[in-house]
Every structure is written in C-alpha cells, then in structure tokens.
Design brief:
Helix content of chain A: 10-25%
Number of helices of chain A: 7
CATH topology of the largest domain in chain A: D-amino Acid Aminotransferase, Chain A, domain 2
Structural class of chain A: alpha+beta
Bound molecules: pyridoxal-5'-phosphate
Strand content of chain A: 25-35%
CATH architecture of the largest domain in chain A: Alpha-Beta Barrel
Oligomer: homodimer
Shape of chain A: globular
Radius of gyration of chain A: 21 Å
CATH superfamily of the largest domain in chain A: D-amino Acid Aminotransferase, subunit A, domain 2
Distance between the termini of chain A: 27 Å
Order of helices and strands of chain A: EEEEEHEEEHHEEEHEEEEHEEHEEEHE
Largest sheet of chain A: 10 strands, mixed
Number of domains of chain A: 2
Number of strands of chain A: 21
Chain lengths: ~350, ~350
C-alpha cells in the first residue's frame, strides 16, 4: 500500500450553507449533498494532496476513461450522531480494505489509509450540522475513484480522482420487499468482478431488475451464473435465510460482495447464541422450507437499508409468501446494529469509530 | 425505437483548428481528438436536439450515475477516405443496431437512428481535413452514452448524454501478438452483459490482462466462465482459428460481442469459397491442432486493429508458437476489408456508406 507521510488536507470552505433549504423529514436517498466534498487526484504515479472544497460540478474530458471503460469503484458508509452530539463511523477500516480490494481488481492504484480515514474525519466534522441524531438518521458517505485520464485506448488509466461526497439519509427500503430469484440473468461470473464494488456491476443489474419490477417484485436475489441453483446476494444487500431458528447465508466467493453489515450480523448472531451457518444455500432447499413452513424469515443486509425484511419470493413462476416471525431476527439484528452505530449500547468488538 | 421527426442539428464551429499541431505520422491511438464533437442530451423522457460544438471538457455532477453505477455504453467505428477525397463509413447500421442492443441491456433509452446517422455524417464532413487517404489511415469515431443524472440511488438514470468524439488513427496492434487462454479469470457470465458494449466489461479485463502482460502475453483470449474449456473472444477483438484450410470462430452468445468485423469476415470467407465454421471452439482442439501442425493461423478481428495475427498462445503453462502460413488468411481478409473500406474494390454487399 501506498502510504503517504503527511496527513495534511487543503481546505476551502463554502461561503454559505445550503442546509436551511433541506427538508430533513422528506429526504429522498442520494439526491441532496452537503456543502463540501473531498477530492484527491492521482497523477505522475502518486496520490496528490487531498482537498476539501465546496461541493461543485467536476470537469471531465469527454475521453476520460471512466466514461468509456468503466474504471470506477466506490464505497458506501454512514456517519451517525448520538444524543450528546458525538459522531461515529461504523467499521471504516472494513470499507477501506474493500476499496483497495476493488481498486486492485480494476487495475487502479490503491488509496492510502491515512488519506481515507483523515479525509472522512475532516469532512464529517465540517458537515456536523448535516447529521441529525436519532436512530435511522445518518449521513451517507460515498467515497469513489474514477479514471480521469483523457485517452480512449482500452487499458488502465494513469490518472484518477478519489472523491468523497455526503448525502443526508434516513433508512430506506422500510417496507418489506418482494423478490425474484434469478433464473436467467446473472450479476457476475466466476473469475469476474462481482466481489469488487465496481460501478459496472450495478448498471448490469438495472434491466433484469426493471423486468422483475414489472412483475411486481422490487429486487432480484442473484443466483450463481452457471446453474442458477444457489442463492447469492441482492443488488445492494447480502441475504440471510432463517429456517426454524437457524440462520443461513452464502459464503463469500469471487461473485459476492463481502458486506460489512453481513459480517457484523454473523458476529452478532454468535454473540447472541443464534446458530448461523455460512454455506451454499440452494433454491430448492429454500422452496422446500417455504412449503413445509420452516422458512421463518428472509432478509437483506447492507449499509443503506441496514436490515431489510423480505416478505415474498418467486421462482419458476411460483410465489411464496414468508409469514415472518414474532421474535423476528431481522428486528433483533437491526436494533442491535443501530444501537451500536448510535452509541446506545456496548461496542464489544470496537466497531464504532469516533469522529468528533 | 424513439424516432425523431426532425433531423436538424445545431452547429457551433470551432474558431480555429488544432490540426496543424498534429503529427499524423506518429499518432498514438485515442489521445488526439478533432476540433468538434456532437452532444445530444436525454431529459424529460426524450432526446433533445443534437449539437455539434467545439471539442471541450464536459461538466458532470460528482453524483452523476455513470461515475457510480457504470451506466455507460459505446461504439467504435471508422471513417475512411479514398484517393479522390471521398469519405465512407463501414456498415454504420450495424453499429447503430448494436448501440441500442447495449442500451436496452443497460436500461438506457434507445437512441434515434436519424440522429445517429445524420450526426455522424455532419460531424465527419466537418472534420474532412482530419481524414487522410491511404490504407490504414482513418478517423476513429467514438459514439457513447453515459448517465448524467445527479443521484446516487442504484437505479437507472433519467438523464443521459449521447456524444461522438473523433480521433485520427492508424491501424494499431501491427506486430503479431502473443496471447494467454483464460483459465481463472473471466470476462462475462451467462445471463450477463458480455454481448453489450458496456463500459464495465472493459475495466474488468484490465487486471487479468496486466497479469498476462507481466508473463509476456499482450492479450487474453477469454473462455467461457463456467468451464474455461471453450474459446470466446479477446478484449477488443473476436477470434478466428484456421485449422488446415478451414476457418473456425465461436458463435455469438450472451457473453460475446457481436463484432462487425467478424460478421464481415464470415461473409467474405463465403464469397471467397473459404470454409468457415461458426461453432464452439474448444481449448483442447486448438492445442491438439497446434501439436500436430494443423493449426495454421489464429487472428483477431475488430474495428481498431482490423485483422490482427496472433503468433503464440499459452495454456496451462505450455506455450504454443503458431507458424503462420504463406497464403495467410489474415492478410487476405485484412486486404479485402481495407479495399472495401477505402473504396478500392467492389462492394457487393453494400457495406460502404458514403458520407461526402
Ligand atoms: C452488491 C452488494 N452486496 C452487498 C452490499 C452490502 O454491503 P455493506 O453491508 O458493506 O453495505 C452492498 C453494498 O451496499 C452491495 O452493493
Ligand atoms: C469485446 C469486443 N469484442 C470484439 C470487438 C470487435 O467488434 P467490431 O468488429 O465491431 O469492432 C470489439 C470492438 O471493437 C470488442 O470490444
């Protein structure tokens, strides 16, 4: 990794704030951005000094490689405020590590850790007012790297921009969602880039997801591309199944994004004495469990939605309703996570990262 | 398809030309652009009036969806000049059809045909001086569409830009290349977006290609992602094998880009009475043919390189040199194509499209 000796960041403050124009009770996800952003450019073989500046449009050559060859990766994180006004991130070291795993797979230069952590901390501190206390409120943080070099040969760029933009958020996907198990389309191949948070992975899902929506299902649960027999993950969430009192989730492989929420839930399950198996989950097993009534819950896990209950799934034109359970694991994990994130409960694994 | 009644294009000419600064004998692919570009924006559910304007940087919000979710597709075409100064495109209807196939798969709006063809014609006519006669010289044309809408929710954009930029070119990959047959990494999945000219497909290849280059191989021939037993295509070229006097190329499927050069070569082979089989090509068959001396040629086919001979391949740590042949099919097809493109020979299938 490309460690940088200094942690200095150039700062140009916005002359005024847009915050008074924002209706915090009616936030649509990802459309409103705070007053500042962080930019750090890569050229001449190294990352230059990061700059925090007023949020503004960027200038890109029409030949910038990101527009043609999709060299673009991102992360999704949140900052949370407790009732005393203290601000925290959740396991930012995990997002940092994943960013560089994505960078390597997309032939992009690794980003230095001190720039990542200090950059986030400085930016979040500056945007303090944008973070509202209360469970479910947060500041969504979007670090990303794009290839800016103006050259349309199909090869890795020599110039990049790392940026962080911030958007105030409430939890989204609050209603239970109905999902389709993928039978024809796939999200990623063995030996592909599915485990990277690569921009291209998302656009590839839009069309099949739109077809699913036309049938009344909001999301797709992706299956392995070779056989479509094993359930993997959703578009922006990892997936858990509860059969009886046992939790099951697919193992990581090169098609699946190694979610921070997923790995935290696996740990919380262990802490709470809930049996959790990490193993391949077959479509036929889940259908059988739905039929015999032992499938109690299915839920997604991801930073944006935290935990998102799934109320029905469809496969081979058959629809299965999932009743849910009184002692819902989904709510237990969601509460548990939010309590750690908002500094309400004990943080025995050191997941909270205090910002200010 | 979204047909637009008018074919008008707004035109703002550059005040001066950069052409005198360009060394046409030393062109590096895709780094120099002509004086103008075409821009057509999609908003409020329709494509707006196209504009030709001086080539210039574009302004993009940091939250533009293309930067986060990879909604970006492109085409690669060329304009050719004959010795009388007449200018032609080659089968632009094919690129148009493929652009919209890509658009559909990436959940982007289809682009109207008259804007595509008239836009190209108007722009090429304006850049007449940039196109040099002589086989191998051309103006590379890069139509592309990117999602510009400023919103970082993972769903299809409502705003896009279609653009065309142009770069003067000589044929590239002139030396025979050495290739690696993919054994671990893959380019695309069944049910994925491999058949679309989607930006993300390219970035996904850079890292494995870099590893191949470190071993002394310039390109990878991708195999099917499930078994790695069947040869599919290269990074920016379809692939042909010649065993004895028979040509073989893989059939199109949802992992393979339906190349215009490939389909033209299949037709030329038929015209010339060369036996060409379109069927699955196994790695073991090609290795066996290399061993018994019947593998005469392997070559790539694509707009940028036209026809690109391959001199060696490696699989399972074994390297096979391909001797080549006196009556090289690669040269026959290359000449045949260039002669049609440059208006030297008869165009019996109506592939030339006269611009001016
Ligand atoms: C494809 C995919 N799977 C799973 C997740 C969940 O990961 P995390 O819990 O780190 O947010 C995400 C990201 O949000 C994702 O994009
Ligand atoms: C992946 C891929 N395969 C094949 C080709 C060849 O297609 P065409 O002959 O239309 O240029 C290209 C494009 O250049 C490509 O990007």
């Amino acid at each position: 990794m490309n460690m940088i000796p200094t942690n200095e960041i150039d700062l140009v403050k916005a002359s005024s704030s847009k915050i008074n124009d924002v209706d915090f009770n009616n936030l649509q996800f990802g459309r409103i951005f705070t007053d500042h952003m962080l930019v750090c450019n890569y050229k001449d073989g190294k990352w230059q000094k990061p700059q925090i500046m007023p949020y503004q449009p960027m200038t890109l050559e029409p030949s910038a490689r990101v527009l043609h060859y999709g060299q673009a990766i991102f992360e999704g994180m949140k900052a949370y405020k407790d009732d005393d006004g203290k601000i925290f991130m959740f396991r930012p070291d995990q997002n940092f590590a994943r960013l560089n795993k994505s960078a390597t797979r997309l032939a992009m230069p690794e980003f230095p850790k001190n720039y990542f952590i200090n950059g986030l901390e400085t930016l979040i501190t500056l945007e303090n007012e944008w973070i509202k206390p209360g469970k479910g409120n947060s500041l969504y943080l979007r670090p990303f790297i794009v290839a800016t070099e103006p050259a349309i040969a199909a090869s890795p760029a020599e110039e990049y921009s790392f940026m962080i933009i911030c958007s105030p958020a409430k939890a989204y996907y609050t209603d239970p969602v109905r999902v389709l198990f993928a039978e024809k389309y796939s999200r990623s191949a063995d030996g592909g880039v599915g485990y990277a948070k690569a921009a291209g992975n998302y656009a590839a899902q839009f069309y099949p997801t739109r077809l699913a929506q036309e049938k009344g299902f909001q999301q797709i649960i992706w299956t392995d591309a070779s056989s479509h027999d094993y359930l993997e993950e959703a578009g922006t969430m990892n997936i858990f199944f509860r059969i009886g009192n046992k939790l099951i989730t697919a193992p990581n492989n090169d098609r699946i994004l190694d979610g921070v929420t997923r790995k935290s839930i696996i740990q919380i399950a262990e802490d709470l004495g809930i049996d959790c198996e990490v193993r391949r989950v077959s479509v036929s097993e889940i259908k059988a469990a739905a039929k015999d009534g032992s499938l109690k819950e299915v839920f997604g896990a991801g930073t944006a939605a935290v935990v998102s209950p799934i109320s029905a799934f469809s496969h081979a034109e058959e629809v299965f309703e999932i009743s849910g359970s009184e002692d819902s694991y989904a709510s237990i994990f969601k509460d548990h996570l939010l309590n750690i994130q908002h500094n309400i409960s004990e943080d025995k694994h050191g997941w909270r990262h205090k910002v200010c």
